[in-house]
Design goal:
about 325 residues, alpha+beta, Hypothetical protein af1432, five-stranded antiparallel sheet, two-stranded antiparallel sheet, 14 helices, elongated
């Protein structure tokens, strides 16, 4: 068996100027020819952006295979193809299937980010070895990618996940919905992996173009999670957590109860945590001021009943929330 990561250089026309790292035998020595950069780009644009194949296959088939001894997945950063990862087994080995391809695709997001930021062979190899150990769930892998890219978004998402779970428990939601809220809280901003650093880390107000770019992150997040059965209940929460109760939100302009309940709930706790957190362009608000802002927007920006339920819960757990922020009660 063998495995290989190819990371294209910024000006690379094809593999000749790419970084290559492998574990075990390189797949091409096992009968799996390396795909060209053009082939990888076409693969990334297909409905099933992975290649399952057997030894000797050099071209992706017209109809995607359901299984194969070899598996290739493009590495992406936003819409940019940054490389590919290939796992290969010799016959008569266990065959990879679409579930393996989906998991490898998720791991690829983490690896692509680490490699793009580091541009270092050892960093790439470390990420690849993490994949080989396969000791991360898909959620953990995506959440780790957030930490690699943006520590604020990572910590914010962790708190939002906890807050959403608290509010769901207070409302008596069943375990399945609580788990969907927990996952959606962790991954609601995963679409920001596709937002440029210049926009994400800007210290001043965003211009119109940058604002529109940021506003794409819910749909980009939903696209990342699409097709994964484990994320089926979390996906609409991720997609719709920036809708407004009055219908003036995004991406779909849903209003009132047309917005999925989990998304309405997450919108409240997401806004609350943003208000009480330090940002490059403004300091954190005191808890009482943040609650006042939420009540001001109840019925227009947020679901009024959920705002009131959250405000009551914050009052009860104020010391615990301040402790999470590192503030002495």
């Amino acid at each position: 068996a063998g495995a290989e990561v190819i990371l294209y250089g910024e000006e690379a026309a094809d593999q000749d100027t790419a970084i290559i790292a492998h574990i075990g035998k390189p797949p091409h020595e096992l009968g799996y020819p390396r795909l060209s950069r053009a082939q990888v780009r076409r693969l990334a644009q297909s409905s099933k952006p992975w290649l399952l194949r057997d030894p000797g296959q050099a071209e992706p088939p017209a109809a995607p295979a359901q299984s194969g001894l070899g598996l290739t997945v493009p590495l992406l950063h936003g819409d940019e193809v940054t490389g590919m990862i290939t796992l290969a087994r010799e016959a008569p080995g266990e065959r990879y299937g679409e579930a393996d391809a989906q998991l490898l695709q998720l791991m690829g997001f983490q690896m692509s980010l680490s490699a793009l930021q580091a541009r270092m062979r050892q960093r790439l190899l470390d990420a690849f070895q993490d994949l080989q150990r396969a000791n991360l769930s898909a959620v953990q892998a995506l959440f780790a990618a957030l930490e690699t890219r943006d520590r604020y978004t990572h910590d914010h998402s962790e708190r939002v996940s906890r807050f959403a779970h608290w509010l769901g428990e207070r409302l008596g939601l069943p375990d399945g919905q609580l788990e969907a809220l927990r996952i959606a809280g962790l991954l609601h901003d995963i679409g920001k992996l596709g937002v440029s650093d210049g926009t994400l880390y800007k210290n001043s107000q965003l211009n119109d173009e940058e604002r529109e770019h940021i506003k794409r992150h819910p749909t980009m997040g939903a696209r990342i999670l699409a097709g994964m059965e484990a994320f089926a209940e979390a996906l609409p929460i991720v997609r719709h957590h920036h809708e407004r109760y009055d219908g003036k939100g995004y991406p779909d302009g849903l209003a009132g109860e047309a917005i999925p309940f989990g998304a309405r709930l997450l919108a409240v706790v997401d806004a609350f945590d943003s208000l009480i957190s330090d940002r490059p362009y403004r300091p954190a608000m005191p808890l009482r001021e943040a609650l006042r802002r939420l009540r001001e927007g109840a019925g227009t920006q947020w679901d009024r009943a959920l705002v009131e339920a959250w405000c009551a819960l914050v009052t009860e757990r104020e010391d615990e929330i301040l402790g999470m922020l590192g503030v002495q009660p």
